[in-house]
């Protein structure tokens, strides 16, 4: 083992940064692939068709937490705690229970999806029935992928759990669209949805393979399912947080589609894809640090917690500076490449970039509150954000003199500010832990100068 490997093995911070590097590379590659396939989509589909594909696919993704009974975010608490206490059978029990929950909840969620499509997009049940039905079935597949990814993070296998979802899926979609474009094949709403579904199947298979060794302990003893009501209650409390933190993009697309035209939804989708480069970078840091931060919080190790928050926060701020400059430099040429319809999305894109910046600034306050068993504040603060998001879209009806897409975007930023700032404030007042990047870094520097 060389010197660098020894340092990484012996340092929790270096382990987290190494894991972040892998996840970050996957996310950068995945986002570049996402931009590329989005560019092909908008060239092969009309703005209305692209808006329809975005709305139908995003709606399915948005409902996935219901198909898991929102047990995915509970994994970072339940599995970490069980394994840290040496009760692997209880960790295995949670994993088994989460799979049972999908088997029960997924069919109900599929029925809900079809009902919403029938109400909101009835024409596509006639013109794109095959694609809609296949996407409906993939809700169960996405539920398995989402839960598996969360369990992988809880087992400190962030790279293995995230790479399939972040890199392989967009690369597959890009490859298939390149073939469609090269052969001059006709792309329809239905066939576009089928391509999305194919990537879910591949994602499931690859994730199963990559996490196989990490999950081997679940077969070494009989799973013990103990107090599942607490898991379900925690999942319910965290549902608004899950929608906001992990499904922000698709949540905004679905909300926008309730009021805006499909052409305007297409603008929002492209703007979110560009501003999402920054959002995914921030999430990559949080994913890589979450398990270690959770263990430090459970162990009540204040200095270790501060160090993880400070290093993670500093990393996010550096990434923010780099990504903002990159987007500003390339924004106009990128929008021009999408086509004339999308050149007006520059202001929307810059506005929506404020959301990941706010997230980076205030930090992982929800994880701190969760570890301290303060689920109710998380629920109520994030529920406020969920309520404010559709209100933002409805403002376009009372402010018709302004650009509806811009009004909606500004409202989205305000809603997320309320959520992230609210959780930070509650965490600071209730636990004394400042999760903000500046606050954690100042506290760490003060601690070092006083010793």
Please explain how this structure is put together.
This is Membrane protein involved in the export of O-antigen and teichoic acid. With 451 residues, this protein is mainly alpha-helical. It has helices at residues 3-10, 12-44, 47-67, 75-84, 88-120, 124-127, 129-154, 158-183, 189-210, 228-237, 239-246, 248-257, 262-298, 302-338, 346-352, 354-362, 365-371, 375-398, 404-431, 437-449. The longest helix has 37 residues, at 262-298. The protein is globular, with a radius of gyration of 21 Å. The two termini are 33 Å apart. Mean pLDDT is 82; it is low at 4-10.
Mean model confidence by pLDDT = 82
**Secondary-structure element pattern, one letter each:** HHHHHHHHHHHHHHHHHHHH
Q: What is the 3D form?
A: globular
Rg calculated over all Cα atoms: 21 Å
Distance N terminus to C terminus?
33 Å
Query: What percentage of the residues does DSSP assign to strands (E)?
Result: under 5%
Largest sheet: none
> How many distinct beta strands?
0
Q: Please count the helical segments.
A: 20
Membrane topology: Multi-pass membrane protein
Organism: Salipiger mangrovisoli
Keywords: Cell membrane, Membrane, Transmembrane, Transmembrane helix
InterPro entries: Poly_Biosynth_Transport
């Amino acid at each position: 083992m060389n010197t660098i490997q020894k340092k990484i093995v012996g340092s929790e911070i270096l382990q987290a940064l190494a894991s972040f590097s892998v996840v970050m590379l996957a996310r950068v590659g995945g986002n570049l692939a996402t931009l590329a396939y989005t560019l092909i989509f908008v060239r092969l589909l009309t703005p209305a068709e692209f808006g329809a594909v975005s709305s139908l696919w995003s709606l399915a993704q948005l409902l996935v937490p219901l198909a898991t009974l929102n047990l995915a975010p509970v994994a970072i608490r339940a599995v970490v705690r069980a394994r840290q206490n040496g009760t692997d059978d209880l960790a295995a029990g949670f994993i088994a229970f989460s799979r049972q929950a999908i088997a029960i909840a997924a069919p109900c969620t599929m029925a809900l999806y079809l009902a919403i499509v029938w109400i909101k997009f009835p024409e596509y049940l006639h013109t794109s029935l095959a694609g809609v039905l296949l996407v409906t079935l993939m809700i169960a597949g996405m539920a398995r992928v989402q839960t598996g990814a969360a369990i992988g993070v809880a087992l400190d296998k962030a790279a293995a759990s995230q790479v399939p979802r972040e890199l392989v899926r967009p690369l597959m979609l890009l490859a298939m669209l390149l073939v469609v474009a090269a052969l001059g094949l006709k792309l329809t709403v239905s066939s576009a949805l089928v391509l999305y579904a194919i990537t879910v199947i591949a994602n499931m298979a690859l994730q199963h393979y990559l996490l196989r060794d990490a999950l081997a302990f679940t077969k070494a003893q009989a799973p013990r399912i103990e107090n599942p009501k607490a898991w379900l209650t925690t999942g319910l409390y965290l549902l608004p947080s899950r929608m906001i933190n992990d499904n922000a993009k698709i949540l905004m697309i679905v909300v926008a589609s309730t009021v805006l035209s499909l052409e305007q939804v297409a603008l929002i989708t492209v703007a979110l894809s560009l501003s999402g480069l920054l959002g995914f970078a921030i999430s990559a840091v949080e994913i890589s640090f979450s398990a270690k931060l959770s263990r430090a919080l459970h162990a009540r190790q204040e200095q270790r917690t501060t160090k993880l928050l400070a290093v993670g926060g500093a990393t996010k701020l550096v990434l923010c500076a780099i990504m903002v400059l990159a987007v500003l430099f390339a924004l106009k040429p990128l929008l021009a490449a999408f086509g004339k319809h999308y050149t007006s999305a520059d202001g929307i894109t810059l506005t929506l970039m404020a959301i990941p910046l706010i997230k980076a600034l205030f930090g992982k306050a929800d994880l701190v509150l969760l570890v301290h068993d303060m689920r109710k504040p998380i629920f109520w603060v994030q529920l406020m954000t969920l309520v404010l998001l559709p209100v933002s879209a409805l403002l376009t009806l009372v402010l018709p003199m302004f650009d509806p897409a811009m009004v909606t975007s500004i409202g989205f930023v305000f809603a997320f500010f309320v959520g992230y700032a609210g959780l930070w404030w509650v965490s600071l007042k209730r636990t004394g832990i400042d999760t903000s990047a500046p606050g954690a870094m100042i506290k760490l520097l003060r601690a070092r100068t006083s010793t």
